[in-house]
Amino acid sequence: GQKPLPWRHWLKWVVAVDLDQQFVLSQLARRGPWNDCANLPPVVEAASQQTRIGLVLADAEFDSERNHTGDIPTAHSL
Fold first, then answer.
1. Which domain holds residue 34?
2. Domain count for the chain
3. How do residues 16-55 score in pLDDT, each as one tens digit?
4. Per residue, what are the HEC states of the chain?
5. Considering the domain boundaries, does residue 63 fall inside one?
6. What is the average per-residue pLDDT within 5-15?
7. Is residue 3 part of a domain?
8. Strand-pair partners of 13
9. In this structure, is residue 31 part of a structural domain?
10. Cα 15 from chain centre
11. Burial of 77 by CB count in 10 Å (0-12 exposed, 13-18 middle, 19+ buried)?
């Protein structure tokens, strides 16, 4: 039979940035593999303490009802 592939780890980095100012507002890093879906709300919340959030754009990994119904009423989700 085939040997299983060795377990690999990598950096998982969730970052909230202000694209106009080119400035990192909030971040969270951890070792993967890991499901980052639950990490988006605290990163966005921390970023919202720095500036008004107008748009949150995230990878499909973050696509969940919980992430679409956030506590930031001024932000749009796609």
1. 10-77
2. 1
3. 999 999 999 999 999 998 888 889 999 999 999 999 998 8
4. CCCCCCCCCEEEEEEEEECCCCEEEEEEEEEECCCCHHHHHHHHHHHHCCCCCCEECCCHHHCCHHHHCCCCCCCEEC
5. yes
6. 88
7. no
8. 29
9. yes
10. 6
11. middle
